[in-house]
Amino acid sequence: MELDKKNNGVSASTTTTQPLWLLAEITYQCPLQCAFCYNPTDFDKHTQNELDTDSWIRVLRQARDLGAAQLGISGGEPLLRKDIEEIVTEASSLGYYSNLITSGAGMNEKRIDALKDGGLDHIQLSMHDITEEINNFITNTKTFKLKQKVAAMIKDRGYPMVLNVVMHRYNIDHIQEILEMAEGLGADYIELANTQYYGWSLVNRDQLMPKKEQVENALKVTNKFRERVGNKMKIFFVVPDYFDDRPKKCMNGWGEVFMIVTANGDVLPCHSARVIPNLEFPNVNDSPLKGAWYDSPAFNKFRGDDWMQEPCRSCSEKENDLGGCRCQALLLTGNAEGADPVCSKSPDRHIIDQAIKDSQNPGVEAKPIMFRTNENSKKIEKGDEKERLEKFHATP
Amino acid sequence: MAIETKDIYKIAAHHRFQWEKAQDCYVILFPEGMVKLNGSAGEVLNLVDGESTVESITETLSKKFTDAPNIAKDIEGMIELALDKAWIEKVN
Predict the structure, then answer these.
(1) For chain B, how many structural domains are there in total?
(2) Which of A190, A226, A268, B23 is deepest in the core (most CB within 10 A)?
(3) For residue B86, which residues of chain A lie inside 8 Å, CB to CB?
(4) Is residue B53 part of a domain?
(5) pTM (2 decimals)?
(6) What pLDDT shows up at residue A50?
(7) Given this model, what pLDDT does residue A16 score?
(8) Looking at the partner chain, which of B14, B18, B33 has a beta carbon nearest the beta carbon of A95?
(9) Is residue B27 part of a domain?
(10) How many CA atoms lie within 13 A of A219 on its CB side?
(11) CATH code of the domain covering residue B75
(12) A2 to chain B: closest CA residue
């Protein structure tokens, strides 16, 4: 009966395969250049063929008919598009519970009012640190004051405010102060999202990954804070899976609950699914969402557990995590059908153990952070950064 | 908190209660979450409107479900759960 926050907001009790959650990655353009961005490293090639307003409205209608009720409007920075107000208004009239996921860049008094009038339900704002220095460093932009201003605007208009803070080596020791800041700003929810290593964060893993003790301390501080504030501010601490010995049930199962439509119209079961080779994802320009969700080979590829190899296939715990994350398995081991290497039963667990060992001595890494820029995206696409990527990615 | 028959509740701020055709059930939507309600929970919350007392909700549902002997207790339990989950708020 109940769907709760435990697994990305949705419990395992869903027996149907209707999409409940639509994430619209409406543009890959972003003025920020965050070193941990989960967008694909080759995002630049998807910036020229964005869906137009009419296509998005068609997508919203089709997904609603299939059962989607939660809508996340994300990016890149969605506010770079001028039609967000129009899209939100349509979403509201269709009965979505809509969420704008923003860095704050592009928000102003006029737009926040128009979004409210259009029926936007809540806003999720990314924050980075209590210090201007770290905020500006990790985003490679001067955006600290802007975020404080936008937070005040969100509260002033009576939106529920969700703050999302991606945690990494540079801010994890400030967790107490970050929580105090969130409380001071009147946040209703705060997500402390420990970096998961895909896209840009995998490229920058050496620079971002905290030590195990830092993560353990952060969890302790968070639990203590949570006891004090109770229901006033809900705190979600997303545990980084590298430090666990069982993988996460990624996206609550491939093609079970989440449907993502990207800026160029690709329909994906998770943000980074396009890293998996030899899978052709449907595109809304070619096929309606219903066919994409139910019938496309890509959405059926990892549904259920028929696809599993050993040690997952005969594992007594396979229902708990469905073998973990397919993208992580591919990126780190080269085999998308194998066990997520986070699992201690995986023959590839040593890859994770090595990363943890490396994180104890970050000084050995001499390479500078590669920020999420169009220029760097082009470089990676061209193969210029092969040496750097080989350290983290399995080579087929 | 004990539930009194004169209590009035409403759906909590930042939450939305609605019928979902595709799921064939009532749901509660809120930031980052969605709860699918079973039949009886949905019937109760559908009457939690910021005006009806627990007593009148019980009366309405007793007429609708005449073969449910412990309906008052079930309704109280459902309201208690919803309050505990912060899906509803007390008005009076």
Answers:
(1) 1
(2) A190
(3) 231
(4) yes
(5) 0.92
(6) 96
(7) 54
(8) B18
(9) yes
(10) 12
(11) 1.10.10.1150
(12) B35
